[in-house]
Amino acid sequence: MKNELYIQNSLTRQKELFQPITDGFIGMYVCGPTVYSDVHIGNCRTFVSFDVIYRYLMHLGYQVRYVRNITDVGHLTDEGEDKMSKGAKLAKLEPMEVAQKYTVGFHDMMKIFNTLPPSIEPRATGHIIEQIDMVQQIIDNGLAYEANGSVYFDTIKFAEEQKVYGQLSGRKIDDLLVETRDNLKNQSEKKHPSDFAIWMRASDDHILRWNSPWSVGFPGWHLECSAMSTKYLGKTFDINGGGNDLKFPHHENEVAQNHGACGCKPANYWVHTNMLEMNGRKMSKSDGNTITPEQLFTGDSPHITKAYSPMVVKFFMLQAHYGSTLDITDKGLQDAEKGYRRLMEANILLQKMEATNGSASELDTEINDLMDKAFQQMSDDFNTPMAMARLFELVSKINSLSAGHLSNNDITNETVDRLKSTFNTFIYDIFGLLDEEIGTGGRNGIADGLMQLIIELRQSARTNKDWGTSDKIRDSLKELEIQVKDGKEGTTWSKS
Ligand code: AMP
Ligand code: ZN
User: Fold this and answer.
1) 252 C-alpha to ligand 1 centroid (Å)
2) Per-residue pLDDT reduced to its tens digit, 189-214
3) Whose CA is nearest to atom 5 of ligand 1?
4) Among residues 156, 253, 305, 360, which is most buried (max CB within 10 A)?
């Protein structure tokens, strides 16, 4: 492996040297969306963060099996109603119609943000048999009991037998015992308020229902992730993650279920992303403090002064560590827009830079040190803002070399090549950014090819003193808001 990787583990609250269970292979499970409404920009932040983690693990040379589920049953609201059924009833749709609509919408959004699809994307409704099996195992192990057709996890017994309940969310057992929300309607069936349903008997009007040994019903929300991660990644796998609002009750109960069924912890490392806020406050629909990805892309929101492209929004997200809260503001997005363009334009200049057989120098060492640091900082708990800061120090060097303020004779051919590949690796492979100015990922884009052709035609018109043609090309490009710059490294273009 290229670098030692350190991960902030929510389970131990420590930054730990990452050691996979199987050499060279990583199993990673991330809680996916509940598909009963459009994904919001906060959800996108979490999935973009895990995409960068996935990409970086692959960059380090690991083979990664990335499992991200679709929750299409069982996620309950505080009132005890299934979110999927509620969405379906409101819209007079089949629950699967609701799930399909928002799953497609989620996938479209993930493509817009240029995230990679996971290796497996299991649906909760496609794994009812596995969930029923798991309920049975937990009952057989004496950690769940049936009451009136529903099955409850016995938290008191679990907490007494295995001292891990509360460890992940950092809650004291006494607090856990009063805090439960999964099924307020049926509290009287439980031995203790903190017990949570792993199977629920369906009331007559409940749309999503399956046969089981206990009743016609449906699985508890937390169960799907335990059952599906075990099926695809094994009883204990490497990384389990999601937003930190899932730590309790979802992940805490997931840990309990896995111990209850398999007698072991589900994951060695738990990674939790922090929340996206707006103007310093939690995004909240009720007080209007919310913005959708579409509003960001069109500028149609009172919270912003203009539209921001998906890559600008993604760049903005990468400027904060996944573990810190991120406050979305118009000013922050404006700065991100400038930063994104500066980075992409420097890379265009860099890729055209010719190696001039320079010799090793202080500058050469400085450039190599900055590249080393950028990778080390990514390996320090996926620190994108720190790695990005090193890239921007390199951007200054690239611009100075291009403008002739620093000399190409002071850097070796090897360093020029390494710098080119480091920038492409970070921008495209690790951060997963696209060059929106040139359309198709920045490398050998069609638009870039066409622009090179136009630039060459303009050049030959000028050489032939065909001022009419050369002026026409310049004026047409101006109308399209494309700027052509003649510099030491040749002619470059950008969209103003
Ligand atoms: P949900 O569809 O509610 O299950 O959420 C999908 C994912 O988005 C989960 O990992 C949540 O923790 C995460 N998430 C929800 N709200 C936010 C937010 N404001 N900022 C970042 N992540 C969030
Ligand atoms: Zn989950």
Assistant:
1) 16
2) 999 888 999 999 999 888 889 999 99
3) 33
4) 253
